[in-house]
């Protein structure tokens, strides 16, 4: 079973202001994503080839306050809050780890609906984003938010403050470009090209 880093999540208090800042300060241009109605959030996407950076903010505070994920984004301010690994075989992971599968979707501004199945989001949130959640995209590969799957990965590495054995067990031994921070808890940094996000 192959796993790869799919995306990193960066919570922002204002999506439009963050998009302008990421483009001006870091040269990372984002595209409008869509709304996650069940979480009270919306996103903007920085396509990076086979992977992407997700800027995510709260657009419906009432709904966000009732959702674990929405609350995380609501309380985070502006910082990295998590990461995800993609698989084409979600079921064996779910069975091995005893996880539940959740379905998600959002509509892009052009009306195209993106759909996915994910597992381990609750566990990822309770690890402060140190553990990734698993995602399996549905539909044609060209709809993936990253864009060009033939390009080299844009996310070169992630750094987590987490027990190395815990992460290895979670990933079933899969080797990913992960660094380990000596202090803290959760996702600490991500390398996008020569840019280091914290």
Describe the structure.
The chain has 198 residues and is an alpha+beta fold. It has a single domain, classed as 2,3-Dihydroxybiphenyl 1,2-Dioxygenase, domain 1 (Roll). It contains six helices and twelve strands. The strands form two sheets. An eight-stranded mixed sheet has the order 2-3-4-1-5-8-7-6. It has a four-stranded mixed sheet with strand order 10-9-11-12, with no helix packed on it. A hairpin with a 5-residue loop joins β6 and β7. The longest helix has 12 residues, at 15-26. The protein is globular, with a radius of gyration of 16 Å. The relative contact order is 0.20. The mean pLDDT is 93.
How would a crystallographer describe the biggest sheet?
8 strands, mixed
Count of individual helical segments: 6
CATH topology: 2,3-Dihydroxybiphenyl 1,2-Dioxygenase, domain 1
Mean pLDDT: 93
N-to-C span: 30 Å
Uncertain segments: none
Count the strands?
A: 12
Architecture, CATH level 2?
Roll
Shape: globular
Query: What's the level 1 CATH class?
Result: Alpha Beta
CATH homologous superfamily classification: 2,3-Dihydroxybiphenyl 1,2-Dioxygenase, domain 1
- Kindly give the count of domains: 1
What is the helix content?
10-25%
Counting helices, strands and paired strands, the structural category is alpha+beta
Beta-strand content: 35-45%
Following the backbone from N to C, one meets helices and strands in this order, namely EHEEEHHEHEEHEEHEEE
For the biggest β-sheet, the strand order reads: 2-3-4-1-5-8-7-6
Radius of gyration, in angstroms, nearest whole number: 16 Å
């Amino acid at each position: 079973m192959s796993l790869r880093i799919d995306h990193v999540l960066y919570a922002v208090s204002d999506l439009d202001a963050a998009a302008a800042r990421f483009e001006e300060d870091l040269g990372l241009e984002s595209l409008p994503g869509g709304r996650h109605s069940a979480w009270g959030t919306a996103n903007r996407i920085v396509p990076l080839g086979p992977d992407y950076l997700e800027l995510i903010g709260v657009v419906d505070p009432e709904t966000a306050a009732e959702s674990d994920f929405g609350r995380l984004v609501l309380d985070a301010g502006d910082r990295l809050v998590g990461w995800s690994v993609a698989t084409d075989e979600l079921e064996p992971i779910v069975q091995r780890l005893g996880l539940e599968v959740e379905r998600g979707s959002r509509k892009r501004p052009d009306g195209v609906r993106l759909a996915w199945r994910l597992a381990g989001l609750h566990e990822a949130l309770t690890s402060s984003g140190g553990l990734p959640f698993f995602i399996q995209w549905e539909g044609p590969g060209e709809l993936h938010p990253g864009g060009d799957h033939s390009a080299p990965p844009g996310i070169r590495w992630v750094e987590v403050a987490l027990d190395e054995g815990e992460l290895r067990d979670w990933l079933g031994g899969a080797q990913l470009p992960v660094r380990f921070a000596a202090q803290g808890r959760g996702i600490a940094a991500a390398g996008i090209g020569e840019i280091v996000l914290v």
